[in-house]
Structures are given as structure tokens and as C-alpha cells.
């Protein structure tokens, strides 16, 4: 019989502290844009791409927003596993993806579309819906909604 030393094994703890009693409800892309825009720093919105996710409950009430990456002028790296791990931890049933285009161009790139499809497919296995993907301009004033444009 082998004796295992468990002193070097990490203990994993999961906690959930909901605070959505007064959180806003998202009913359209403009609602999401108005909240998400506030999470991208004004001083770098025209310089660096940022990728964040809004997590929603089953009533489209915001559970929270998390910044997942801050990259360069033309792209940022996103790890779907971290996004899905966070969604599971906060018991989200929906998500809205968001990133900015420092150039101001509000056209979705093929990479943007591919990432959206990848996350949508992966989230579907866990019954989590990607409701939209919002691209915010480098000025912070305009946006493109994948849902509104029929790209979801």
C-alpha cells in the first residue's frame, strides 16, 4: 500500500457571493455598450485592444464584468478556458463579449468572428448563451453589435 503525502496537494475552494439585487438588466445592445464602455480605460481605448466579458443571469441581470486581456494596437490574446471557468464560477447563464478597436474601425474581422463562434460553441456545451459581441470604437463613442448585425 502506497502512502501519499498530501501536504503538497493544493486545496481548491469555490465560493459564490451574489450581489445582483440592484444590478442593471440588459435588454438591448445599447444597454450593454453603456455599461461595458465604462470598463475600458479612457487613456488607452485608442491605443490598446482590451477584451472583456459581461456575465448575466437567466433574467439578463448583470452579475459582473471581467477584463480578460489587454493587448497591442491591433490585437489581444484571449483564452476561452479562462472565460468559461469564470462563467461557471459566477453561475452565469449568459455572456456578452466585448473588445475595442483602437483604429476606430467598427467592422468585425475574421478573427473576431472566429473567436465568437469558438466561444459560442464551447459555452453551448455548458448551457451558457453568448448573447452578443460588442466592438467599441477607439473613441469610445460608437459600437458594433454582432447580434444587431446578424453575426451571432
Concise overview:
With 152 residues, the protein is an alpha+beta fold.
Descriptors for this entry?
single chain; 152 residues; alpha+beta; Cytidine Deaminase, domain 2; 5-stranded mixed sheet; 3 helices; 5 strands; 24% strand; globular
What does this structure look like?
With 152 residues, this protein is an alpha+beta fold. The protein has a single domain (6-145), classed as Cytidine Deaminase, domain 2 (3-Layer(aba) Sandwich), CATH 3.40.140.10. The chain is 22% helix and 24% strand. The chain has 3 helices and 5 strands; from the N terminus they run H-E-E-H-E-H-E-E. The chain has helices at 29-36, 80-89, 110-124; strands at 50-56, 62-70, 94-101, 129-137, 143-145. The chain is globular and about 60 Å long.
SSE arrangement:
Blueprint: H1 29-36, E1 50-56, E2 62-70, H2 80-89, E3 94-101, H3 110-124, E4 129-137, E5 143-145
Parallel strand pairs: 3-4
Antiparallel strand pairs: 1-2, 1-3, 4-5
Poorly predicted parts: none
By DSSP, the count of extended strands is 5
Helix/strand class: alpha+beta
- What is the 3D shape? globular
Strand order of the largest sheet: 2-1-3-4-5
Radius of gyration: 17 Å
Query: How many domains make up the coordinates?
Result: 1
Element-by-element helix/strand order:
HEEHEHEE
| Helix run count | 3
User: Mind describing the biggest β-sheet?
Assistant: 5 strands, mixed
CATH topology tier name: Cytidine Deaminase, domain 2
CATH class: Alpha Beta
Report the portion of residues in β strands: 15-25%
Going by CATH, what is the homologous superfamily? Cytidine Deaminase, domain 2
Q: Can you name the CATH architecture?
A: 3-Layer(aba) Sandwich
- Overall average residue pLDDT: 91
Question: Percentage of helical residues?
Answer: 10-25%
Terminal-residue CA separation:
55 Å
Amino acid at each position: 500500500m502506497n502512502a501519499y503525502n498530501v501536504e503538497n496537494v493544493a486545496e481548491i475552494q469555490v465560493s459564490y457571493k451574489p450581489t445582483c439585487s440592484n444590478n442593471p438588466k440588459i435588454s438591448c445592445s445599447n444597454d450593454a455598450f453603456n455599461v461595458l464602455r465604462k470598463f475600458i480605460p479612457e487613456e488607452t481605448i485608442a491605443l490598446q485592444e482590451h477584451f472583456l466579458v459581461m456575465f448575466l443571469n437567466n433574467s439578463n441581470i448583470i452579475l459582473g464584468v471581467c477584463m480578460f486581456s489587454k493587448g497591442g494596437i491591433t490585437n489581444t490574446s484571449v483564452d476561452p478556458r479562462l472565460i468559461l471557468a469564470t462563467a461557471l464560477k459566477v453561475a452565469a447563464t449568459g455572456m456578452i463579449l466585448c473588445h475595442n478597436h483602437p483604429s476606430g474601425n467598427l467592422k468585425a474581422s475574421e478573427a473576431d468572428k472566429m473567436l465568437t463562434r469558438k466561444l459560442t460553441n464551447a459555452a453551448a456545451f455548458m448551457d451558457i448563451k453568448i448573447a452578443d459581441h460588442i466592438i467599441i470604437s477607439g473613441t469610445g463613442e460608437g459600437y458594433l453589435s454582432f447580434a444587431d448585425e446578424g453575426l451571432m
